[in-house]
Amino acid sequence: MTATQAIPFKRDRSLATLAMIGSAACWGLATVASRDLLEQVPAATLLPIQLLASLLFLAILASRASRRPASWPLLLRTAWPGVLEPGLAYGIGLAGLSLTSAGHAAVIGSAEPMFIVLLGWLLLRQRPRRRLLACLLSTVIGLSLIGLCGSETGNSATSLRGDLLIVLGTLFAAGYVIASSRLANLYPPASLALVQQGAGLLFILTLQGVIVAAGFATPRWDALDKAVIAEAALSGVLQYALPFWLYLLGLRHLSAASAGLYLALIPVFGLVAAFLWLDERPTMGMLLGAALILASIAVARRYT
């Protein structure tokens, strides 16, 4: 690579890094916002509102950001990862978030880079080095500390079941990263995020229709205040539209493993926001678990 070629390459990598940091900031802050909203809106009602707002924002962004029209018939074939995330990941994750704290969710979500490596090994036969496996083990220990130590929250709403649901949702999110890493360079990020989130919303609405038809739940759309709906819509842009667009933008210049490591920044934003906004005070054990996860990811970066 010549010096002239290296300048645009470094610039692209720098922009990708900034995009990844921005996506992590959005996800960390949005986790806290959603946790606050779940006190007023059931998870089954909140998610469709957030996704509808996100789709509207992405549609506007895609129409303005794309220099060339996307081939929509081909683009729709790339929509299926949206079933993994936001469909399954956030459908399960919001249910878990309603049972645990925003701080727990943010820190547990930081294990996603390790899950990406693990799924890449199982699904793509990309076997990691032994040192990377050691990092994965220490991440699991960190997760255990977070789940067992609890946190000193204002409402003491921590639950091991909620933590386990967050872990399961994070696994689906890792699957989304692996699937989308091969698609990010094919289409504009906003257009790709639009069709994937459309697929996720369709999956969520279909699942909810089955649940309502079976008599397990009844939607509460009429009981929502307009101010709450507006807040939910804004949180949807923060949690889905902006971070997914930024993440897919970063994936154009980074590998899935490299991009996933930046997700370790989510608890940094999430824990601070949870402390300032929700008065969630982490215990020493939770902080130790968070530090162990972040240290593991920092070391693992050398081997991905």
TrEMBL record:
Boundaries of every EamA domain copy: 17-147, 161-299
Keyword Nucleotide-binding attached: no
Any Pfam family matching the protein: EamA
Keyword Transmembrane listed: yes
Record membrane topology: Multi-pass membrane protein
Major place of residence: membrane
Alphabetized InterPro entries for the sequence: Diverse_Substrate_Transporter (IPR051258), EamA_dom (IPR000620), EmrE-like (IPR037185)
Annotated keywords: Cell membrane, Membrane, Transmembrane, Transmembrane helix
Gene Ontology CC terms: plasma membrane
Transmembrane segments: 15-34, 40-62, 74-97, 103-124, 131-148, 160-179, 191-216, 228-248, 260-278, 284-303
Compartments it resides in: Cell membrane
Protein name (record): EamA domain-containing protein
Lineage summary: Bacteria, Pseudomonadati, Pseudomonadota, Gammaproteobacteria, Pseudomonadales
